[in-house]
Design a protein that fits this description.
The complex is a heterodimer of chains A (473) and B (386). Chain A contains 18 helices and no strands. Chain A is mainly alpha-helical. In chain A, helix 3 runs parallel beside helix 5, helix 13 packs antiparallel against helix 14 and helix 14 runs antiparallel to helix 15. Helix content of chain B is 52%, strand content 7%.
Chain lengths: 473, 386
């Protein structure tokens, strides 16, 4: 079920109404479990069974880790959990990719092997709920969480419908404590939840799908060389599209959870105002970057090791972060590019951090602009379905196709430029603040006008139920 | 002896273990209590929400009144979910119409039902290549009914990757993969679309309104041609009818649409990134492949006892001349009938079918479509051996 669909509106109204009219907390939680499975099963009912089995296994493994008397046995149970989750992810998401690469490797040594094409349907949101579930056993092993005794609560923690299929990746340790005491219905919180849902839908339907996706799609699907202007506009459009699409989903999820009395952390914090790449990753898909930091980067030694090893750790983490997004080498290159950016930034810090000019406005502005440009260049690999397209796009962006084609209308170019300028201006002005503070600060009439305008634009755009980009991950 | 009730309770014990109410001790999920709580902006939310709701209702009503005042009426959107809903109505022996918007506008379901004894299922769709629909029905092992397939050469022979082909593939793909949620959304959307005039996905959306801004393009920019404005309504059976504003002879709307068809049907300039002869060879190969695929699909259908007839529906004016020039009858229509062995009805061959005028050159008015279908029936009966 998509947030931007009529089915979801009806579903949400029914769930919220019944939820707040029930007194018993246990019944309410049962309602949320059933609703979440309906929400998920509306895509493909059999995959709900897969979701349940992963959850039940991790519940049991979590208890085994908790009960195990010593570290080696705890580790053995944890390895079982990690293997179970990653093999599930590996089979559904990377099965064909691994086979294709295996075939390629064999071909290099002269063995002709034709692998069977596995007709595997990717369960929607598997990368997200696998990580929701995995965070539970990892945190029990790390000693920051005790295993829960209630399977129902754990099922709800993994499958809570607002964050189930496209994040934020909510850790069990952040969610389970919210299931101890029933939340009270607070009007302000509920209505702010609705306002956030409106903002999220506006970002998705109006800005991502209507204003930007057309230009990005046309540029990336064009079979010929493009001139620099069209190439850059296409990439910038995608940079905006993916932000509004994914941040829109996260905002909807946070808003829907608030309407039900739950608190989810921010997943985005104005990333296009980042100054440097470590700053970018503290602001972009925060739930994934902190997941990778806590469960991968720090266990690898983090930055408490020799500089060369720390750099290698960064590259390994970003490599896996890239692969998490999809079974294609283009995602790997995207991850490796970001890994390289982070390493270069670290070197620059070592060399220039103490310089007087390092913190002045011009340097910060230049670094911010450079960060945005480098992030856009990395998006080329993220969006391109193969390296031919990526190389053609980069060729266009850096002036290799002076005689290339121009395919965007002036209106499309203006749309992309205006939305991008607005996006960057908003991010820069809110970079050290948050949206709640901004709403509190603004005159009431502006808040009301903005909310009404967003709602009217959503109605006027009449979204046609395009799936969110991150569903495919 | 245990009663059947106690047995039943015993059986329920396992699930109850999973869903029992946890004790207070069990409920404490370790770790510290949640420290994180989202801040809530301190504004008077109730009053603000009331104002927002009133403004949105007023703006929506104002927009609705305006849209009606300039001639828009409520109608269903022709999208892939409505198509899928209709496709599900196809029974093994159904009479099915596939193809482009000419079959969609020009064929009256009531008249065809009267003349052919079965109510047709309307699967033709605007600006769409009908081949994916033909292949879909040919691959449907249960289907052995009758197909009336409209042929507009420029659309039916659209190469892979072109917009008409993608539209055809999209509807078939949705039919195969439609989720329960998408189906439910379509059922929820239909009553709204039938009562609210501004709910038109291809006409009154914000995107469409922005496209109407008179902003000139760069010289040489390869911008896709404009699509025609709203000129028809559609019901739950997917029967399309031309609106009166367009059907009136010489109306401003009809003249506007005429000038949109010409660039839309004109082949785009040859791509600059492929040598001309290579591109032409690729296009010829694509056409040849389409001939082969059609023949294969027809054979599959006939092997199960299915029937098919190709129909070339009326087109007039400069558009007819353009179509004849870019894809002449002897290059597409004649070889199509010959190679597939399918009977065909070409409107120009029969004076009673060729005497209709299409107000915007490409489709019949709702009134004419009834008479045209009545006159078409005997030809269909002959072609299908009925």
């Amino acid at each position: 079920m998509l947030f931007n669909s009529l089915t979801f509106i009806v579903f949400f109204v029914v769930v919220v109404t019944v939820y707040w009219s029930i007194h018993s907390w246990t019944t309410r939680k049962n309602l949320l479990v059933v609703s979440s499975y309906i929400f998920y099963g509306a895509w493909n009912p059999p995959f709900a069974a897969l979701l349940f089995s992963t959850t039940a296994m991790d519940f049991w493994l979590g208890r085994q880790i908790g009960k195990a008397p010593d570290r080696p046995r705890k580790r053995a149970w944890l390895i079982a959990s990690v293997c179970m989750n990653l093999s599930m992810l590996g089979f559904f998401k990377y099965g064909n990719f691994l086979l294709q690469n295996f075939q390629w490797l064999l071909a290099r040594i002269g063995i002709a092997y034709q692998p069977p094409h596995l007709d595997i349907l990717l369960p929607v949101g598997i990368s997200f709920y696998t990580f929701h579930s995995l965070s539970y056993t990892l945190d029990i092993y790390r000693g920051v969480l005790q295993p829960t005794r209630s399977l129902r609560d754990f099922i709800l923690a993994v499958s809570f419908f607002p964050q189930l299929v496209a994040g934020p990746i909510v850790r069990a340790g952040d969610f389970l404590p919210q299931l101890v005491h029933p939340p009270r219905l607070k009007v302000g919180q509920f209505l702010w939840g609705l306002a956030l849902m409106t903002l999220g839908l506006f970002e998705k339907i109006v800005l991502a799908d209507m204003m930007l996706s057309g230009s990005a799609d046309r540029v990336f699907s064009y079979a010929g060389p493009l001139i620099a202007l069209d190439s850059w506009i296409g990439v910038i459009a995608f940079a905006g599209q993916i932000f509004f699409d994914f941040a829109g989903y996260s905002t909807c999820a946070i808003g829907a959870a608030l309407c039900l009395g739950f608190h989810l952390k921010d997943n985005f914090r104005f990333p296009y105002a980042a100054i440097g790449f470590s700053d970018f990753w503290r602001r972009w898909h925060i739930s994934l970057s902190t997941f990778l930091r806590d469960y991968l980067y720090i266990p690898l030694g983090g930055n408490q090791v020799r500089p060369l090893r720390a750099a290698l750790n960064l590259v390994i983490v970003m490599f896996l972060g890239g692969l998490w997004h999809g079974a294609a080498w283009t995602f790997v290159v995207w991850g490796l590019l970001h890994g390289s950016y982070l390493v270069i930034e670290r070197i620059c810090r070592l060399l220039f951090e103490d310089k007087a000019w390092a913190g002045n406005f011009a340097t910060r502005a230049f670094t911010g602009f450079g960060t945005y440009a480098a992030v856009c260049i990395a998006w080329v690999f993220f969006r391109s379905s193969d390296f031919t397209i990526a190389s053609r796009m980069l060729g266009g962006m850096f002036g290799r196709h002076a005689q290339g084609d121009a395919i965007l209308s002036t209106r499309e170019i203006l749309q992309v430029v205006l939305v991008t300028l607005g996006l960057i201006a908003a991010h820069c002005s809110l970079r050290d603040s948050n949206i709640e503070a901004a709403v509190t600060r603004l005159p009431r009439w502006i808040v009301a006008a903005a909310w009404a305008l967003m709602a009217c634009a959503i109605i006027l755009t009449q979204g046609n139920g395009n799936a969110f980009i991150y569903f495919q991950f | 002896m245990p009663s059947s009730t106690s047995n039943f309770k015993d059986r329920l014990r396992l699930p109850r273990l999973f869903f029992r109410k946890p004790t207070e001790a069990e409920s404490v999920h370790g770790g510290p209590p949640l420290e994180f709580e989202r801040p809530i902006p301190q504004v008077p939310w109730r009053g603000l929400t009331v104002i927002v709701v009133l403004v949105v209702i007023a703006a929506s009503m104002g927009w609705e009144f305006y849209c009606r005042s300039i001639g828009y009426a409520p109608t269903l959107n022709d999208n892939e979910d409505l198509w899928t809903l209709t496709r599900r109505k196809v029974k093994p022996e159904s009479l099915v119409i596939i193809g482009d918007s000419r079959a969609w506008f020009d064929l009256d379901l009531d008249e065809l039902q009267k003349g052919l004894g079965k109510r047709p299922v309307q699967l033709a769709a605007g600006g769409t290549c009908g081949f994916p629909m033909l292949a879909d029905l040919a691959n449907d092992e249960n289907f052995h009914g009758t197909i009336i397939c409209s042929i507009v050469p420029r659309l039916f022979f659209a190469p892979p990757g072109s917009p008409p082909m993608e539209r055809g593939e999209k509807v078939v793909k949705r039919f195969r993969n439609q989720t329960l949620a998408q189906r439910a959304s379509q059922y929820l959307a239909m009553p709204l679309e039938e009562h609210i005039a501004f709910l038109k996905q291809e006409e009154l959306t914000l995107d469409d309104l922005l496209q109407r801004l008179p902003i000139p393009n760069r010289p040489g920019a390869l911008v896709p041609p404009t699509l025609p404005p709203y000129f028809g309504t559609e019901d739950r059976e997917r029967r399309a009818r031309m609106i009166d504003q367009c059907a009136r002879p010489g109306s401003e709307l009809a003249r506007r649409i005429q000038q949109i068809w010409l660039p839309l049907f004109t082949p785009p300039p040859l791509p600059t990134y492929i040598p001309k002869d290579v591109f032409i060879a690729e296009m010829n190969e694509a056409t040849e492949a389409r001939f082969r695929d059609i023949t294969t699909a027809v054979s599959k259908l006939r092997a199960r006892g299915g029937k098919i007839v190709f129909v070339r529906l009326p087109v007039v004016g400069e558009l007819e001349a353009l179509e004849d020039r870019i894809m002449p009858r002897n290059a597409i229509w004649e070889p199509l009938l010959k190679r597939s062995g399918v009977p065909g009805i070409y409107f120009q061959d029969f004076p009673e079918l060729a005497s209709f005028n299409c107000p915007e050159w490409s489709h019949l008015s709702a009134g004419d479509s009834v008479e045209f279908s009545k006159r078409l029936v005997p030809h269909l009966r002959t072609a299908l051996g009925m």
